[in-house]
Amino acid sequence: MRKKIIAGNWKMNKALADGQSLALEVINLAIEEVPQDTQLVLCAPAIHLASLDDLLKSTAHVHLGAQNMSEHASGAFTGDISAEMLKSVGVQFVILGHSERREYHHESNELLSKKVKFALQNNLTPIFCCGESLATREANQHIEFVNKQIKDSLGDLNKDELQKVVIAYEPIWAIGTGKTASAAQAQEMHKSIRDFLATQFNQATADSISILYGGSMKPTNAKELLAQPDVDGGLIGGASLVARDFIAIALSF
Ligand code: PGA
């Protein structure tokens, strides 16, 4: 049985008090309504993390996530945040390779390979993001493109390490645009990712990996996407900023 995961990516939104109220609202709704077998992850801005840890301790199925992490252990890296620091405030998950970081901070597959390994060494669960641009999809190169992202960043993990990774397929053209991939497009890619992992590792390992869909997922389209056999959850941007919407997505399995 693969884990069902709904992760909220708050991106660069919410000052501290607003973030705390949002988290509190999500926790209260989660305790009342969300089944224990659905894991929720709140990937808040770094400045919120320390203060959210205590709030999240009241529930076993809402976890704390970061949006990025340095590939270095410590030292002269102004502005960066290390795995050890994230661990020290109770973080369990870390988004790595979001397309916004790939684009605006030039994060390459090779750099992300280092970050993924480093996260795993520090017992953080990477939510590894992959996904193609509209031009790549229109050129019908999307499958090869995503396979290469996965091979270059996850290819030299061993099976035990890979099993600890969560993958998020996020077509860039669907992020924040209101244009969701159709359920069929999402399923095609998720199945292709799983088949590719089976060729690189083995079927049992591929079958154990949770693959989340991200890109304009909302309460109105979540049910259809989450009903696909290879879609194991969602990475939610905009809709994670409204507690009711985020929970409605978590109730759409
Ligand atoms: P969106 O963002 O839900 O606002 O499209 C998803 C993401 O970027 O993770």
Write the layout of secondary structure elements.
Blueprint: E1 4-9, H1 16-33, E2 38-43, H2 46-56, E3 62-66, H3 83-88, E4 93-96, H4 99-104, H5 109-121, E5 125-130, H6 134-138, H7 142-154, H8 159-162, E6 166-169, H9 183-200, H10 203-208, E7 211-214, H11 219-226, E8 233-236, H12 243-250
Parallel strand pairs: 1-2, 1-8, 2-3, 3-4, 4-5, 5-6, 6-7, 7-8
Helix pairs in contact: 1-2, 1-12, 5-7, 7-9, 11-12
This protein binds 2-phosphoglycolic acid.
Question: Can you give a write-up of this model?
Answer:
The protein is globular. By secondary structure, it is of the alpha/beta class. It has helices spanning 16-33, 46-56, 83-88, 99-104, 109-121, 134-138, 142-154, 159-162, 183-200, 203-208, 219-226, 243-250; strands at 4-9, 38-43, 62-66, 93-96, 125-130, 166-169, 211-214, 233-236. The chain has an eight-stranded parallel beta barrel with strand order 1-2-3-4-5-6-7-8, surrounded by seven helices. It has one domain: Alpha-Beta Barrel (TIM Barrel). The longest helix is centred in the first third of the chain and has 18 residues, at 16-33. The model has no long low-confidence stretch (mean pLDDT 96). 45% of the residues are buried. Helix 5 (109-121) crosses helix 7 and helix 7 (142-154) crosses helix 9 (183-200). The structure holds 2-phosphoglycolic acid (PGA). 2-phosphoglycolic acid binds next to strand 8.
